[in-house]
Write a structure and sequence with these properties.
- The strands form 3 sheets. A 9-stranded mixed β-barrel has the order 1-2-13-12-11-10-9-8-5, surrounded by 7 helices.
- By secondary structure, it is of the alpha/beta class.
- The chain is globular.
- α5 crosses α6 and α20 runs parallel beside α21.
- Helix content is about 50%, strand content about 10%.
Length: about 575
């Protein structure tokens, strides 16, 4: 399993406080297309319909949070050399050639075989790698960070080696259980447990680096949970969590979303061998510590962990999906080890005053990731422990259940009294998720149309910003998007709810090498803007680079607009004229 290491630090810049009329709310109407167009990735350059991107919300130089002119290509590219712009032009053009993108892995394999790895990596360093990644190690990326710093952009350092969830070093062996066993036995031969411990050391160094930069009060570090545990274990955990959810539905006899004590006793006697009324009362009281007489799924999910399931299924009347999904003793030990790794990082982040971003991953891992994040949030985001959210979860809004999950987690934060931090993305695994759903024969979890994804993403932003003005807890949001219209709507919502651009309630982030017109113009106007800066050895980050190329290839409109702006800047440099705004 490859490591995924990221640091984010905040570069302070002088935000301009401009007084005047509030930004008028734009009237937007989305045409609900029947198109089955792909739901966009949070790191894509996909734009919403041109009628929206070209229409200003309500420009106001005197607005509390004015909308930047995102067509200002000079602000976007003036810090880049002409050579860098020519390389960008080449990369965006190449990424639009479907044949090259679809056959990239085979072509690279042939190149390494014919020309050798040294020459192949040299070409990549000066093309795709050089454009989308900042370098191979911390020393090489420092000039990039300084360049971004000079224009008021914060940096997210990410060790971009990606894990597809099927590491060769992870092997699960299954064998037939003994006759008196009620579940399968699984034995893990996973040498990379030691590698996971090494990842923790690397992440700790990153968190400390954030502090050493001197921006510890507004610093961020990001991690992938697949760097802390076996991906197969995460998939098993996720399956167990989903079965625990189905168990709640079985207990919810009248389907009103809550389980009363009577419902609980009735369902328990049907599904489990009872140890008596006293034991059953004790179990229910664990789910209902305030003795309200009812349990909803929010409390159920916070109380019941996959690690608790072995005790529960010990009294099952028959072997079913829950019993088969329940972790074995060996798996429980591995789960505990993974949780402890995450707590080591959370404690270090807490000590350094650094916010910890937990990346979203494939759907088959996400329930387990969410469970781990909620455990960390309840501990380290507690109002008694911190004045702001230290732990952020990531929500992929191209998933059909994104808004429901976000709402549930916000309610959990309110009920269990902890601050809430969220990073919103559109999503990063669309092609693989749809392919897996088709192969396995279940409904795709991805939104049916690109319009549905836009609506979901924008609604989640508005929901969190509104909630931030009503909650007693601190609510913080990172808008990680390359979609100009979503950013404009976020700024509109900031003005609607009276949220200043300097507030830690909201910040914006884009990928290094993409949509510089958004990042640099946001930074120019005093917004909390960041670039996500990947780094790592060339051969390790190839999955990341190929995914970037696939995204640009499938999203022609956004890439075409970026190409147009780069060409405009190159023409300006040749002519020596002042810039004219590029048209969308």
């Amino acid at each position: 399993m490859m490591s995924s290491n990221a640091i984010m630090y905040r570069i302070p810049f002088a935000a301009r406080r401009l007084n005047g009329l509030s930004l008028l709310r734009a009237q937007s109407s989305f045409s609900r297309s029947k198109s089955s167009m792909a739901a966009v990735d949070g790191s894509s350059t996909e734009q919403q319909p041109s009628s929206l991107t070209s229409r200003p919300i309500a420009s106001a130089a005197n607005s509390p949070n004015p909308v930047p002119d995102f067509n200002d290509f000079k602000a976007a590219y003036e810090s880049k050399s002409t050579g860098e712009l020519l390389r960008a032009l080449f990369c965006f053009r190449v990424s639009r050639v479907r044949f090259l993108v679809n056959n990239a892995e085979n072509l690279l394999r042939i190149s390494r075989s014919v020309f050798g790895g040294t020459l192949t990596d040299f070409v990549l360093r000066n093309t795709l790698f050089g454009h989308f990644c900042a370098g191979e190690d911390e020393v090489m990326i420092r000039p990039v960070l300084k360049s971004l710093d000079s224009v008021g952009i914060g940096s997210i350092l990410d060790y971009a080696a990606e894990n597809d969830g099927e590491p060769e070093s992870a092997r699960v062996q299954e064998f037939d259980p003994a006759p008196d066993s009620i579940r399968r036995v699984r034995e893990y031969d996973y040498e990379s447990e030691r590698q996971c411990d090494k990842h923790v050391e690397t992440f700790v160094k990153c968190i400390n680096d954030v502090q050493s930069l001197g921006f510890e009060k507004d610093g961020y570090a990001a991690i992938k949970v697949t760097a802390l545990g076996n991906p197969k274990l995460l998939a098993r955990m996720s399956q167990a969590i989903m079965e625990a959810h189905r168990l709640f539905e079985q207990f919810d006899i009248d389907k009103d979303g809550t389980v009363s004590r009577e419902d609980f006793e009735t369902a328990y006697n049907l599904l489990f061998f009872s140890d008596g009324e006293t034991a059953m009362k004790d179990i229910f009281d664990q789910f209902d510590p305030n003795h309200t007489g009812n349990v909803d799924y929010i409390s159920w999910g916070m109380t019941l962990s996959p690690r608790d399931l072995p005790k529960i299924i010990a009294n099952c009347r028959e072997v079913g999906p829950l019993a088969l999904a329940t972790p074995t003793e060996e798996e429980v030990e591995l789960i505990e080890a993974m949780y402890e790794r995450s707590r080591v990082l959370a404690r270090e982040a807490e000590k350094c005053g650094t916010r910890l971003l937990i990346d979203a991953e494939q759907v088959r891992f996400q329930p387990a990731i969410d469970n781990l994040v909620l455990d960390l949030q309840q501990r380290y985001n507690s109002k008694d422990r911190s004045d702001y959210p230290i732990i952020y979860n990531t929500y992929q809004c191209y998933l059909k259940d994104a808004k429901e999950r976000l709402n549930n987690d916000v309610q959990r934060a309110e009920r269990f009294d902890f601050h809430f931090g969220a990073k919103l993305v559109r999503g990063a695994y669309m092609e693989s998720e749809r392919a897996l759903a088709e192969t396995m024969g279940y409904m795709s979890p991805i939104q049916d149309t690109v319009e549905d994804t836009h609506e979901s993403y924008n609604a989640c932003i508005d929901f969190l910003l509104e909630h931030s003005t009503k909650s007693d807890q601190k609510v913080e949001l990172m808008v990680a998007s390359h979609n100009q219209r979503s950013i404009e709507l976020a700024i509109e919502a900031m003005n609607k709810y009276g949220i200043d651009r300097e507030s830690s309630t909201i910040c914006f982030a884009q990928l290094f090498g993409m949509t510089d017109n958004l990042s640099f113009n946001l930074g120019k106007h005093g917004y909390r803007a960041y670039k996500y800066v990947p780094y790592g050895k060339v051969h390790e980050v190839m999955p990341y680079l190929l995914r970037r190329a696939r995204e640009n290839s499938s999203i022609v409109g956004g890439a075409a607009r970026e190409l147009c702006m780069i060409k405009s800047e190159l023409r300006r440099r040749r002519s020596g004229l002042q810039p004219k705004m590029a048209s969308a």
